[in-house]
Amino acid sequence: MHQLLEFAGNHLALVITFFGLAAALAWNLFFDPVAKSAVTPLQGTAMINHDNAVVLDVRSIAEFNKGHVVNAVNIPLNGLAKQLQQLEKYKDRPIIVACRSGSRSATAAKMLMKQGFSRVHNLRGGMMAWENAGLPLKRD
After folding, report:
1. Is 99 a catalytic residue?
2. FRET partner for 37 with CA separation of 20 to 30 A, picked from 2, 52, 65, 123?
3. What's the rounded Cα separation, in Å, for the pair 115 and 3?
């Protein structure tokens, strides 16, 4: 125990960083509503097939045209706030938000939750995970 306290005293910046990262991880795992509602590509596929879920792709139009989930709605993240009215008809359906890796879609999911969309799910790993799972893409 004495050595542990000595280490902590000698490496205070490291200890503070460790506890900061641990707190951020705990927040992400236990309190972040977007992280709690994230779905894997296979869970998303089940939701699309059985719960009539809508996929909202928030990537750019160029990224979307390179490959997207069949019947996905494309509204780039930078224009989402201005185009939320397009999604009002889906307010009572599950919405799976997707981007390339899952970070932009997390931002979009938070935005939708703040606007009263109650069944919002972030696609964990984004379209990269979708492709890695071998799920179909539509290319324009």
Report:
1. yes
2. 65
3. 51
| Residue 16 domain boundaries | 1-31
Same-domain pairing of 68 and 111:
yes
Alpha helices in 1-140 (DSSP H): 2-10, 12-30, 33-36, 41-51, 61-66, 103-114, 126-132
Q: Which of 54, 87, 96, 99 is catalytic?
A: 99
Return the CATH number at 60.
3.40.250.10
CA-nearest of 102, 60, 35, 112 to 81 is: 112
User: Model-level pTM?
Assistant: 0.77
Query: Does residue 137 belong to any structural domain of this protein?
Result: no
Partners of residue 120 on adjacent β-strands:
95
Residue 8 belongs to a domain: yes
pLDDT, one tens digit for every residue, the chain (140 residues): 888 888 878 888 988 998 888 887 776 556 655 666 889 999 999 999 999 999 999 999 999 999 999 999 999 999 999 999 999 999 989 999 999 998 999 999 999 999 999 899 999 999 999 999 999 999 87
